[in-house]
Amino acid sequence: MAALTDAHAPAIVDLRQIRGADLDALLTEETATWQKMLDWDFRPSAGLVRRFLDMQSLTGYALLMAGRVAGYSYYVAEEHKGLIGDLYVMEEFATPEIEAHLLGTVLDGLVKSPFVHRVESQLMMLRHGSQIALPYWRYLKVHSRTFLEIDLANAQALPQGAAVRAVTIDKWTERKQDEAAQLIAAAYQGHIDSQINDQYRSPAGARRFLMNIVQYPGCGAFFQPASFVALDPRSGHLCGICLSSMVADDIGHITQVCVSKAVRGRGVGYELLRRSLDALAQNHCGRASLTVTAANRSAIDVYERMGFTKRRDFSAYVWDGF
What is the pTM for the complete model shown? Predict the structure, then answer.
């Protein structure tokens, strides 16, 4: 446990000292903030936070102001890496100093873990990321990312891509998960996104990544009817995937678009994405979103030509080598 010395300053306590009900006001505000900023329904994630708090199995810290929970952050550690899952401070108390204090406490805990030498996070609700002195800066790389969205009424008018003559498009099935993991690991070799998420660097890591987006609600509820694969018609081998989720009753999200290096530049990614957008529209979604790294200019160009527009910028943070 850590605390600032001023009696009226915020205190930091272990999340395992907190019950789910103690975060009710905070999680209600965070749910409204996700809705306002991104149109995402945060309620399933908030429910998981409450559940794991009541089980005393959520690792992280709560920020107390005069005994009231005003912020929290949780993390998980797996093998050599820590992942900060969320950090949120209520608007009334969210100053650069408070956010830096909470983030620094989380990083202190991870850095002191004996086997962790890398920490990743994409903190969508960090309000003052560009204004705070980020802790452990010597080990830090910041990657600019962009949240894009599209009106699906417009997306339905997108023309069929030329790739339909070169590949076979089929529905996603879990039987493709191992082959998809191989595809992701090969496609992201040397790619900027493998610097942000090291799960992309190996088939085993990519398999964990796929399991996370299919089973857990961090990027919405996985939506198989709007998820597709591209197959080489001669070999039957997987050469592309586009996976989707539902982040609200009428909002879809593209969680992954990936094509093999062998078919890049042939419109396979475009056609997979077009199919996913059309399927989301057919299932009564009005909008869809995706995130992309700002340095991935070729992908952004494709998305913008399809009609995606920027909703907001955010950052991915990676601390490595401490």
Answer: 0.92
